[in-house]
Design goal:
mainly alpha, 5 helices, Four Helix Bundle (Hemerythrin (Met), subunit A), binds heme C
């Protein structure tokens, strides 16, 4: 029978994963969780957060003019908020204190930006520029190697 054999393989793989060094205070992922990291920290930053952040930072000069463009901005702002959650994942979170608070700053800013994007409220998005920028900056000052030094 194939199933028990593949279960065994899965078990061995899980056991192998469990021995990977995890960040100090981050709890191990629950064994029932199917979540796993796909992108590196750098890839999340460059491929998702950088372009998504621009949707907020340049909302005045790149203001959406139709439903498709607004849908894109909604997606980008939603991604900012949800990537904050990804950054808090076990195995990604660098610690359970400062890192979580820094990620939460971006969660707050991203969530507010998403609400504003759904309302197509350009002024509200402009008003969130600083809050979002500070959320990126704060974590980078704490955790991005060589940043601001
Ligand atoms: C909770 C922490 C955290 C938050 C919030 C955060 N970053 Fe980062 N960022 C990092 C870390 C850590 C690195 C260094 C990643 C690496 O090189 O492995 C980084 C690096 C980067 C880089 C350089 C990546 C490279 O490989 O060159 C960019 C660009 C970036 N972040 C954009 C953003 C933007 C834009 C935001 C806000 C919308 C943001 N980040 C918010 C932690 C964060």
């Amino acid at each position: 029978m194939r199933a028990p054999a593949s279960l065994l393989v899965a078990g061995v793989l899980l056991a192998a994963c469990a021995t990977q060094p995890a960040p100090e205070s981050a709890p191990e992922p629950a064994s029932s969780s199917l979540a796993r990291r796909v992108g590196t920290m750098s890839e999340l930053m460059v491929d998702i957060l950088y372009p998504a952040g621009d949707a907020v930072f340049y909302i005045e000069t790149r203001t959406p003019t139709n439903s498709e463009e607004w849908a894109l901005v909604q997606m980008q702002t939603l991604m900012i908020a949800e990537v904050a959650n990804l950054l808090m994942m076990p195995g990604r979170a660098r610690d359970q204190d400062q890192w979580m608070r820094d990620a939460e700053l971006m969660l707050d800013a991203g969530e507010a930006a998403y609400r504003a994007a759904k309302d197509r409220d350009v002024a509200a998005m402009v008003a969130l520029n600083d809050q979002l920028y500070v959320s990126c900056l704060t974590c980078h000052e704490h955790y991005r190697p060589g940043y601001g030094r």
